Amino acid sequence: MTTVTKEAGAPVPADAGAFLSVRDLHVSFKTEDGVVKAVDGLSFDLERGRTLGIVGESGSGKSVTNLTILGLHNPQFTTVEGEILLEGQELTTARESQLERLRGNKVAMIFQDPLTALSPYYTVGRQIAEPFMKHTGASKKAAWARAVEMLGKVGIPNPKERASDYPHQFSGGMRQRAMIAMALVCDPDLLIADEPTTALDVTVQAQILDLLKDLQQEFGSAIIFITHDLGVIADMADDIMVMYAGGAVERGTTAEVLRSPQHPYTWGLLNSMPRLDSDLSAPLAPIPGTPPSLLNPPSGCRFHPRCTFQDRVDGNRCVTERPLLAPDRASACHLTAEQKHTIFVEEIRPRLG
Ligand code: SF4
Q1: Is residue 337 part of a domain?
Q2: In terms of pLDDT, which residue wins out, 4 or 35?
Q3: Residue 322: CB within 6 Å of ligand 1?
Q4: Does the pLDDT value for residue 218 go beyond 70?
Q5: Residue 207 Cα to ligand 1 middle (Å)
Q6: Which of 269, 299, 308, 310 to mutate to test the pocket of ligand 1 (most atoms within 8 A of CB)?
Q7: CA gyration radius, the chain
Q8: Residue of the nearest CA to atom 8 in ligand 1?
Q9: Does the C-beta of 309 come closer than 6 Å to ligand 1?
Q10: Residues 98-113: pLDDT tens digits?
Q11: How far is CA 28 from the centre of its chain?
């Protein structure tokens, strides 16, 4: 178990060996309507060679967390508190020039839509070669050769010729491969993949996921894989962190979380997933309600307005007291461990099949 997660206010044991340590991270934005608390007390560790899957609905804070790690937030409108330590280097207070050196070199990101990340005005080869030249000081010729090599690695046929193409001459799947090549060209230690296959059809999606797994083995990078799809996480991640309304509500190894999920929100996510072996005419079971506004989040457990299990908790605790995530395998929920187990075995699992 390499990922340690706790909610705000609870101490997290320091892990000297962690490659990436996020500690009590708070990220908020000033808007015309008030302050949005996009991330509210998030902590986790990640080691090299491991993949952490972060899952949650839109607005859960998963993408904001990762953009903050990369320093891609607008400091004019964003307040960041807490610590982000990359090999011991504090990123929340790093200068832009330091972050620029890190981005593309030590840390790289694969975005959901390659068209927003690739410029239409330059050839694919040039866009892969440039970060390599910038970070390694390689000559133009050597960088071009590296770009061709990377295009070959990510499975682009005839990479020598295709390197001179523009992004619009590539298919969607090929553009996504080119973006992976661009992200990996400097052999980053941390790769952040934000919904990298959402826009692709299932066959290409499977190919891209296989490619990422192969490349991780080759490059030994740590990967943060962001998705709303637990099926993809099951295939990709060593550990899972489930986020809701700016905080982590459950974490554990992938096997633990998928075999015996403990949080009502995770149960809801699993229950709302389409299954091949279920009655296809039966309606899906979405989680009732909508994610809360982060301008004015609910009191106590942020999931309580949508949770159908709060009447099993003594008193009014779900409404008044924010549950914390313990340092071992755990979920941020006031239900007792025994209740969680019994509810999952007797009420949730039979529905999941
Ligand atoms: Fe539901 Fe209460 Fe647990 Fe929150 S703390 S998930 S409201 S039972």
Answers
A1: yes
A2: 35
A3: no
A4: yes
A5: 38
A6: 310
A7: 21
A8: 310
A9: yes
A10: 888 888 778 988 887 7
A11: 18
